[in-house]
Design brief:
single chain, 7-stranded mixed sheet, 7 strands, about 40% helix, about 20% strand, globular, binds 5-O-phosphono-beta-D-ribofuranosylamine, GART, Formyl_transf_N, Phosphoribosylglycinamide formyltransferase
Length: about 190
C-alpha cells in the first residue's frame, strides 16, 4: 500500500512508521511526506530516508480548497491510496476527504471523545484524570471526531508531569499506530 504521511511537527510517529516498515511490521511504502510548516523537524527525518517531501505554507493559497487541491495532486502523482496523519495540526476538508473516504486516519493523545483538539495531555492533567491514552480514528471533517478504530489506556501516576505522560503516550503511539494501520490493510484485502 502506498501511503502519504501528513505531519506538522517533530515526526516521532513518522519515524515509528518508517521503522515498522523496515522491521516488517507494516507492509507499506511511504511515498510522500506532506508538511504544512516550514522548518518542522519531521522534514529532515523524511530527507534522511530519501522520502519525497512537499512543504507548503497553506496561508499563501487563496483558500483551503486550493491548498488541498495541490496536496491531492501530489498524492495522485505518487499513487497514494492511504493517508496517515501524524501530528498534522490542521482539519482536512472535502477536497481530500471525498477522494480518500475512509482512507485517512489520525492518532490522538487521549481517549476520545475526551480531550479533543490541542494539548490533550495538558487537558487531561488539568482535569486530574487518572487514566488517559491513545486513540486511532478515521478522519472526518470535525476536530478528532471520526469513527474510532483502536484505543489504548495508560495510567497517570500521582505527581506525573506533562513530560512523564507524554513519554508514556508516545511509547504507546509508536507501537500502536503501525499495528493498527497494518490491521486496516489486512481487513481491506479480505473484503
Ligand atoms: C502525537 O502525540 C499525536 O498523537 C498527535 O500529535 C503528536 C505528534 O507527535 N496528533 P510527533 O510529531 O509524531 O512526534
Amino acid at each position: 500500500t502506498n501511503i502519504a504521511v501528513f505531519a506538522s511537527g517533530t515526526g516521532s510517529n513518522f519515524d515509528a512508521i518508517i521503522d515498522a516498515i523496515e522491521n516488517g511490521i507494516l507492509d507499506a511504502r511511504v511515498r510522500l511526506l506532506v508538511c504544512d510548516r516550514i522548518g518542522a523537524p519531521v522534514i529532515e527525518k523524511a530527507q534522511n530516508h530519501e522520502i519525497d517531501t512537499v512543504v507548503y505554507r497553506p496561508k499563501s493559497f487563496e483558500n483551503k480548497a486550493a491548498y488541498e487541491t495541490a496536496v491531492l495532486e501530489d498524492c495522485k502523482q505518487r499513487d497514494v491510496d492511504f493517508i496517515v496523519l501524524a501530528g498534522y495540526m490542521r482539519l482536512i476538508g472535502p477536497t481530500l476527504l471525498k477522494p480518500y473516504e475512509r482512507r485517512i486516519v489520525n492518532i490522538h493523545p487521549s481517549l476520545l471523545p475526551a480531550f479533543p483538539g490541542k494539548d490533550a495531555i495538558g487537558q487531561a492533567l488539568a482535569q486530574k484524570v487518572k487514566v488517559t491514552g491513545v486513540t486511532v480514528h478515521y478522519v472526518d471533517d470535525g476536530m478528532d471526531t471520526g469513527p474510532i478504530i483502536a484505543q489504548e489506556a495508560i495510567k497517570i501516576e500521582k505527581n506525573a508531569t506533562a513530560e512523564d505522560v507524554k513519554q508514556s503516550i508516545q511509547a504507546v503511539e509508536h507501537r500502536l499506530y503501525p499495528e493498527v494501520i497494518q490491521s486496516l490493510f489486512i481487513k481491506e484485502e479480505s473484503l
